[in-house]
Amino acid sequence: MSARSLVLLAVSLCAGGLAALACFHKSDLVVLREHLNHPFAFGALACLLMAWAAIGLRWRWLRVLIGVLAGLGASGALLAGLVAVALTATEEVGFVDGPAPYRIRLQESGFGLDTVTWLSLRRDGGLLSKEWVFGCFNDDDTNDAFDSVKWTGQSSVEIRVADGRTFPIALDPVSGRPQTTAALNC
Hints:
By secondary structure, the protein is of the alpha+beta class.
């Protein structure tokens, strides 16, 4: 096996490791969640790099076998990724500024008349910014639809739904992580 093939094999294994890490490990760090949370893309990349590395093999039957398997794997990963993106797409609604360094991020997802509103708390800190989901509201029942969110103190938030019910959320004073969550029909 040539040196190029060995390097490509190592890079392929690294891409596969990143795919597994992105798939099975959920991180609070925003930079990891938004930029490295692409398990299907990393999986497809690993398959394509593996096929490229196989070009340097001596046995033709093994090159063909690895090429076919890598092509099927890459196609499957890309198809699964497209389906996942279509089913889990969220739209940015906006941010509610809080006491520095905190902001509440609002996102919506859903198909047709069914909308799910996601609330997450972001603690800005450059590359070490963190984000935690603390609320999910599905408007299947109009009374359970998200209405508003407001800061009620330095470390507390209040969520209001359409029928007037409120959900107080306390934040950990040290880490900023929400101590409770609120979810209706999610």
